[in-house]
Every structure is written in C-alpha cells, then in structure tokens.
Amino acid sequence: MTVGSQVKQSxxxxxxxxxGLQGLALISQDEQAQRTFHEAMMLTEEIIADIKKRLSKLxxxxxxxxxx
Amino acid sequence: MPIWLETAIRSFSILIGLFIIxxxxxxxxxxxxxxxxxxxGITVGDIAGTMSVDLGINLQEGITSILIWSLFPVFIxxxxxxxxxxxxxxxxxxTVFIKNGKILEENLKxxxxxxxxxxxxxxxxxxxxxxxxEFATLEPNGELNVLxxxxxxxxxxxxVFPNPPSEKEPQTxxxxxxxxxxxLATMGLNRGWLKQELDKQGVAIENVFLAQVxxxxxxTVDLYDDKIQVSEPQEKKLLLAAIKKVxxxxxxxxxxTESEEAKQLYTNNAEKLTTLLRQVEPLLRN
Lengths: 68, 286
Known about the structure:
The structure holds two protein chains of two kinds.
Chain A: H1 3-27, H2 31-61
Chain B: H1 3-25, H2 28-31, H3 35-53, H4 59-82, H5 84-91, E1 95-99, E2 102-103, H6 105-110, H7 115-124, E3 133-138, E4 144-148, H8 157-160, E5 171-175, E6 178-179, H9 181-186, H10 191-201, E7 208-213, E8 219-223, H11 235-256, H12 260-284
Antiparallel strand pairs in B: 1-2, 1-3, 3-4, 5-6, 5-7, 7-8
Helix pairs in contact in B: 1-3, 3-4, 4-5, 11-12
C-alpha cells in the first residue's frame, strides 16, 4: 500500500467518524452531550480539510496512484 | 323493596362514593399517612361499612357524616399547603436526635424515645456504630433519617468520575409488539428510524416484545423468542475505536514522512484528535 492510499483510508475513517458524531449530536437528549458531540464534529471537519490538502499534494507526488 | 335489594343498592352506591372520595384525597395519602389521616381513613371505612349493612341508619345522616369525615382532611391539607405555620401545627416538626455526632438526650426524652429504640432504628439502616452518624432526625411520620459522616458515606459515581455524562430516562418504543408513537416522537424519532435500527440488529418487528431507546439513541430489545441472542448496541464503541485508530495512524504517518511540513500537519491533527478523544470518551464508553 502506498502512503497515498493509507492516508485515503484514514480520510474515509475520519468521514465515518464525522457522520457518527453528527448522528449522536442529533439524537442525544442531553444538551451538554449534544454540544460535546457537535464540537467534536466540527473538529473532525477541520482535520478532514487538512488531510484533503495533504492528499492532493501526495497525489501530485505519486501521480501513478492518482485517484485510487 | 326486599331488604337484600336495598342493602345491595346501598353497598354499591357507597362503594362508588368511597372510590370518588379516595380519588379526591390523592396519592399522597397512601405513601405518607399521618396519625390523623390514618384514623380518619379507618373511621370513614367504618361508617361506610355500617351504613351499607345497618338499614336502621338514615342514608342522609350517614352521607353527611361521611362527607364531613372525608372532606375535612382535604380541607386541612389544602390549608396547610398555603400556610407554613399551620402546616407545622398539623403535621408536626421533625426532632433532631443526633447532631455533630452527639446524641441529644433532651430530645430523646421529649419524644419518649429510649436509647434502645434509637439503636434499633439505626440498626434497621445498617448502622451499628453511633460514632458513624453525623446527623439523625425523627420525622413527623415516625421515621428516623440518618446522615452518615463523610468518610462513612457510600461511594457515588461523582466521587470516582468528577463530571460523569448525564443520562436521561430511556423511552419504551415497542410494547407487546406494538409501536408506541408518542415516546418515539418525544425522542425526535420515527417509525422509519425504528425499522432501520431493528434491521441493523437483524430482528423482525413482529418478534419484538419490548424495545427501549436510551438518551443516546441506542436501541435495546427483548424478543418473544428467547432462544435468539441479541447483540448489545456497538455503535458508540465502534466509533470510539475508529477515533483511536485514526489518531494512531496520524502518529504513525508523522513518524514515517520525511517532509517536515507533512510531519507538522500529522502531529497537529493527532493532537487535535487526542483532545477530541478526551472530550467524547466518557460519553462513548458505555
């Protein structure tokens, strides 16, 4: 596995975490819990943006694996 | 009219009348009878019993007496709801028996309580050493309530975890195989969601005897068929594991990469995930 695909895998995991946190934020009954989940969700969004940036650079460095 | 018929009619109407009266008196009476209310209850029952059997008693007289006996306590409890002084007079005050760990002998004497009785009451609450008691008071209904010294108090969740995540009451969404729409709506959910969750657990809705949703949206079910094993909800645990995995991955990438900029980025994000973990871990753990 190349570095690019490894990072892509992490990105996919992050996206699933983001969705999981979002679901919990919506379904939780306690306000404090809602807020915590929401904040965590925003944090994952930041990280996802960062990793996407890094990924585009990686794809440029390893063009043979582009899109995989 | 034959005598038996008159007795039957009397008994039946008095039964209905008593039922209405007990409804008016309310729930409080059952759990916390004062001596006065106890006596009133017995008297009302006695009057009603006599009235239904003894045909010599005029119905008008009997009903008047029952109404007075049963409505007077209602009136008194209404009044004592408004006035603190009146309430103290009617319901009495509590008497402090142990204060700062010391027995107040004067108060014991005033309530005609022997030290043996006090020890017995304490033992009923699993307290065998008076030295463990910080404060004890005799309530107006005759019950002894005890506050233990701090070091003798049982351990609570708050002692172990400073800020435990709060947990609201679970809602029952399926009962006897029928979907209850109202609790579902209270949680902000609908039948579609329920169907989806049941499918995830591989359970047919006809087979569900009871299903409850906790305050984090986890569904637990009890099936008619007790041979089928239902798995516990795993979503929160899986989410926690996924976060931990990505965090570990980022640390690994930071070590592997040769570019200084990328290293910085991975370390930063690994740290962000660590703070995120610290926030959500208590919520996701159970």
